[in-house]
Amino acid sequence: TQHFIVIGNPIAHSKSPEIHALFAEQAAIDIRYQRQYCPDDAASFTAVVEAFFNGGGIGANVTVPFKQIAYDCCVARGGLSEHAKVAGAVNTLLLNTALLESGTPIADALYGDNTDGQGLVNHITSLGWPLKGARVALIGAGGAARGVILPLIQAGIGALTIANRTLSKATNLVDELSTASETIDKHSIETCATSELTGQFDIIINATSIGLSGDTLPLDNDLNCHYAYDMMYGRTLPFLQHFAARDTQTSEGYGMLIGQAALSFERWTGHTVDVTQATNTLSGR
Ligand code: ATR
């Protein structure tokens, strides 16, 4: 049996065990995937992670509020993937086997990846929404937005506008990302306040935490797009309601959740996941 965990606080609501159990069923392998509560501090997180990998664990997912702490943990130890580096956050932990083979202790071989952004790109692609050359607006400039920018650019989008309630956070984010990655050219990314975002886009993505607060975004009446994606899921989403009466296809972020999980699973086990089949099975339950 291969052991996996998802570490978060709170964690009881996590759907990851159910999702990974289905992937394991598809791959016909024997796994145990558990929710792992952790007190909200860096020392406790490190202790939990070390105990897990020292005990023979294969991989861990990291969720709120530990993604940045996991990043710090890996910087100082086994390293980071390009996506984790640019996102400034880790959602997938594994051991750096090259380091282990050269005699590095387990606790110093922790390697961090981030599959959130590629999970979004894969879901959008599976919906049949064209990304190549697309004019994309991304709303939000927090951790969730940051994690998807490099994968969107790598997917070949044509133009990117980042809108945020606090404009300075969007411009700072673009400055930071262009320093962190050669693929991100700050002169090719526009920024604006969310209330100023207007006109026609191909795809608009909501990466704010707005769905949780019950607030609404100040979206302009003349803001239109062919496709609107909300990275949140599971309830009535005010962002998508803006597009309800328009000629817009919409999606919530449940497929992104499955998409990022599938990439973690593939990274850990080497087995490919049939994401469409998994999504159909899980949404039918
Ligand atoms: P996350 O990790 O989920 O991205 P975060 O880093 O706290 O969380 O970022 C939250 C994002 O949602 C930010 O872009 C935030 O806008 P500000 O930078 O202006 O704070 C946005 N957000 C949260 N509540 C919002 C609200 N009521 N109206 C508009 N934007 C909101």
UniProtKB/TrEMBL annotation:
InterPro entries, per database record: Aminoacid_DH-like_N_sf, NAD(P)-bd_dom_sf, SDH_C, Shikimate_DH, Shikimate_DH-bd_N, Shikimate_DH_fam, Shikm_DH/Glu-tRNA_Rdtase
Domain Shikimate dehydrogenase substrate binding N-terminal: 6-93
Positions that bind shikimate: 14-16, 63, 91, 116, 233, 260
Source domain of life: Bacteria
Listed EC numbers: 1.1.1.25
Keywords associated with the record: Amino-acid biosynthesis, Aromatic amino acid biosynthesis, NADP, Oxidoreductase
Binding site for NADP(+): 82, 140-144, 164-169, 231, 253
Catalytic activity: shikimate + NADP(+) = 3-dehydroshikimate + NADPH + H(+)
Domain SDH C-terminal residue range list: 253-277
Molecular function GO labels: NADP binding; shikimate 3-dehydrogenase (NADP+) activity
Domain Quinate/shikimate 5-dehydrogenase/glutamyl-tRNA reductase: 130-209
One GO process term, biological-process aspect: shikimate metabolic process
Pathway: Metabolic intermediate biosynthesis; chorismate biosynthesis; chorismate from D-erythrose 4-phosphate and phosphoenolpyruvate: step 4/7
GO cellular component: cytosol
Any Pfam family: Shikimate_dh_N
Family note: Belongs to the shikimate dehydrogenase family.
Complex formation: Homodimer.
Record-given protein name: Shikimate dehydrogenase (NADP(+))
Taxon lineage: Bacteria, Pseudomonadati, Pseudomonadota, Gammaproteobacteria, Moraxellales
